[in-house]
């Protein structure tokens, strides 16, 4: 089945809720897929510890491992009204990802963007960008974050924990 690059991305997004998603990976992704999830290829150990699905995944086995980790931690409710833009084999997608963080039961709406390359009807490069702070917050159990930013010499700011296990972050 020959699909346009946009149709290929739409098929991938639709596969998130399919029971047979593993069987769809070879038809949706090129064997040498490079799959980046909201990070450059180099991420900090702290980011990987807090968000283990972050980073670079390679090949069909990498996409399957990523998707399994995602499914263990996210109940993806859908991608709301994404806008697709195509330029040759390049696709950009912008929208809202709606999910529930499985460990905390927090519902989250995260703006997202994707830049993908489709080669021979399959995704060969996929880079997913999202609101990393909202994602991290959705999985945080307790405590506050001490953040030092702003004017030099300004006191640190504290980001409190949300004690609400439901509702939007």
Concise structural overview:
This protein is α+β, with helices and mostly antiparallel strands and 169 residues long. It is built from 5 helices and 8 strands, in the order ααβαβαββββαββ. The protein has helices at 5-15, 21-28, 45-50, 59-73, 132-139, and strands at 29-37, 55-58, 74-87, 90-101, 106-119, 122-130, 145-147, 157-159.
Helix content: 25-40%
Strand neighbour order, sheet with most strands = 2-1-6-5-4-3
* Backbone CA Rg: 17 Å
| Cα-to-Cα separation, first versus last residue | 40 Å
State the oligomer.
Answer: single chain
Major sheet size, sense and barrel closure: 6 strands, mixed
Shape: globular
Could you tell me the mean pLDDT? 86
Per DSSP, the total helix count is 5
Low-confidence stretches: 163-169
Query: What class would the helix/strand composition place it in?
Result: alpha+beta
Total count of strands: 8
Strand content: 35-45%
What is the string of helix and strand elements? HHEHEHEEEEHEE
Structure in words:
- The chain has 169 residues and is an alpha+beta fold.
- Helix content is 28%, strand content 40%.
- The protein has helices at residues 5-15, 21-28, 45-50, 59-73, 132-139; strands spanning 29-37, 55-58, 74-87, 90-101, 106-119, 122-130, 145-147, 157-159.
- The strands form 2 sheets. The chain has a 6-stranded mixed sheet.
- A hairpin with a 4-residue loop joins strand 4 (90-101) and strand 5 (106-119).
- The radius of gyration is 17 Å and the shape is globular.
- The protein starts with a helix and ends in a 10-residue tail after the last strand.
